[in-house]
Amino acid sequence: MIGALIFIGDELICGAIENTNSVFAGRILTSYGFEIGEIVTLPDKIEIISEYLKNLIEKYEFLIICGGLGPTDDDLTNLAVAKAFNLELKENKDFLSAIYSAKEYRKSQEIAKKMALIPEGAIPLSKNFSSAGYLLKIKNKSLFFLPGVPYQFENLLQTEVIPKLLELFPERTKRIIKTLRFFDLNETDLNQVISSLPEDILSPIKIGYYPIFPELKLILQGKEEKDLEVFINKLKETFLPYLVSEKDKSLPQVIGELLKTREEKLATAESCTGGMLASIITSVSGSSLYFDRGFVTYSPESKIELLGVKKETIEKFDVVSYEVAMEMAEGVRKKTKVDYALSITGFAGPTGGTPENPVGTVYIGFSYKNKIKAFRFSLSGDRNQIQLLASYTSLDILRRYLLYGESFFSYRFATGIKERTF
Amino acid sequence: MIGALIFIGDELICGAIENTNSVFAGRILTSYGFEIGEIVTLPDKIEIISEYLKNLIEKYEFLIICGGLGPTDDDLTNLAVAKAFNLELKENKDFLSAIYSAKEYRKSQEIAKKMALIPEGAIPLSKNFSSAGYLLKIKNKSLFFLPGVPYQFENLLQTEVIPKLLELFPERTKRIIKTLRFFDLNETDLNQVISSLPEDILSPIKIGYYPIFPELKLILQGKEEKDLEVFINKLKETFLPYLVSEKDKSLPQVIGELLKTREEKLATAESCTGGMLASIITSVSGSSLYFDRGFVTYSPESKIELLGVKKETIEKFDVVSYEVAMEMAEGVRKKTKVDYALSITGFAGPTGGTPENPVGTVYIGFSYKNKIKAFRFSLSGDRNQIQLLASYTSLDILRRYLLYGESFFSYRFATGIKERTF
Lengths: 422, 422
Fold this sequence. Notes:
CATH superfamily of the largest domain in chain A: MoaB/Mog-like domain
Strand order of the largest sheet of chain A: 2-1-3-8-7-6
Number of helices of chain A: 16
Largest sheet of chain A: 6 strands, mixed
Oligomer: homodimer
Number of strands of chain A: 18
Number of domains of chain A: 3
Strand content of chain A: 25-35%
Low-confidence stretches of chain A: none
């Protein structure tokens, strides 16, 4: 049940694109209990592709090979397969007719038909696409060849490859995997507490720490449900406020579920995050049930005109301040019938900042009931990281309030808090 | 001058995180003229790490090994190195004192000091970090060991590894690399035109096609500046409207430069993209010079209250329509002194849609001078892809207008257009 993955493409080697297929394949195979022994990324060169096909087939039960099946001159996978295993390439009639009827190849059929030349013995994985991929059995090992286009790769992996693998390896180790997500928690602090847990709680669990900015994932694998439950309950004793989800749900998803259950609504006002907070909230399908509107008040004028922030407040305290964050949140509540408002004003960098409020300084306003709180944060990272961390932190402030009331408002990078009522 | 990269970590194998270090390393090494022969990703297992260290050192001049240098129990790189090359691990005093003074390990020093045990002969790459990485020379090959935390990896690669590589290999092939970005262009259409170019124009250039949704990157490598210029001019004859940048700049960066030069301003009104358009615009530092405000009018009420969209228009044509898109854009122009307004209303999915306007239908409004245009699009993909494609398309409509006036308003997925004046 141990396989390996081969990703082919100069674009991966020279870092022109991210390998999202590797992430997807790793996740889905692992969650089904399959083990991946190694992942290899190769350039568009027949020699090395051929060499790895021959080597890895000796070490592993199955291989998944991604990329190089397309029509352009740098697509060489089929030639490499032919070389590695001494096979002829034959024109597959089903592939050919799919290519001829595809809209996207209407003007380039002579080039596109190269994709129909596949190794003898290859079993197409699907007839739906013009680049369907195929299965090849060599020395009783299963080699799955898939196109590199992510949408096609993910689809074929899910609908064709996984079911075939499940048939081939019915006795795979059944493991239960639980993915916990934390926010505002340091990996080493978590590790320290975990490694001091009693042996009987610790030993049945395989633990992986995966920082995935700005969250921290903890992937736990065990054979028995109850071992995992005991372990997780132990973690909650120390880390409850930082635990966003036990089901690998993201912060915006958790916010959505909480607000939907309470039938409450949220609106936002952002400056330095420029729409990112609203975008994160609305990345969740169905968010229209609890998200009404967002203001991206990027200029001082727009804060005054749209939210009623007072010109005098900006002049006295500067646009990046507790007071402006509070007036922004208050403005949202006054102009909109929502239960909660979140506001963000700060310096995302790399330019900007003042001696008192350098780049990374962010004020987050939170209004609930008749109250308004503003938190000051000192965040690090590049522009995108600061925007992301500020957006997530504001959502997490709301999350902690919804779950724990006003008990858990302290954060690692918070440097102050002010509040007032309406 | 050919090296290989090894990335170590179960979190990469099982897809828990994306390998951004691989992208960074690939890009920076390639741009300096170094060739990467292969990239291997391994689990946290001493045996296979050790095996690959021994194998790859025979095939390549240098190796860059990333990950497994941390303090947690799954960090095994140093042990694997010791095993592979029969070396002892020794406590490095500089590392140790850096760990003892680091804020983040204040509460976990006993665990953290494991990071100071490095192979004999290892030369630390920096004294600035508590996880600095090191250089090891084996059989006259250079092995660079770097931490997996992206900020540290990128920093060390840039400031320590690249300079050392440049010293080691002064005769590397100097290549000029130009990265072109296209939008709304199909890879096979581009390839078809390219492969029909005259031999003398084509042969000096190495070409890579890299779809990076929603753009398409074309990476051109050549020895002479003039060969690249001739080639690019040939491409422009056919593909000018689709060419976003010859300097690998993204669409929001290009929009920023165009608006700044013209001293003009933009504001936005979004529904189904929920803040993503504003977020993309403001991802560019300095965007406050040309971006004033964005409205995220996620509910019908907010469209009416904030933008002056007429209730009757929504009732007659539905909120996802040409007419509402135009009234949203018009509302932005009327309430704000900006030169351009972009609006988006549609069904991003997966839920929603009507028989006439299924999921993926997006109306984009564009207002300039005294005109308002609305375009209807039929987009495919998941929710995030539809939001991203809609956001990018709206920016591209503005880009083409700024560069070419009203000549190039046709798009692959556009299914209609309406217009009126104020």
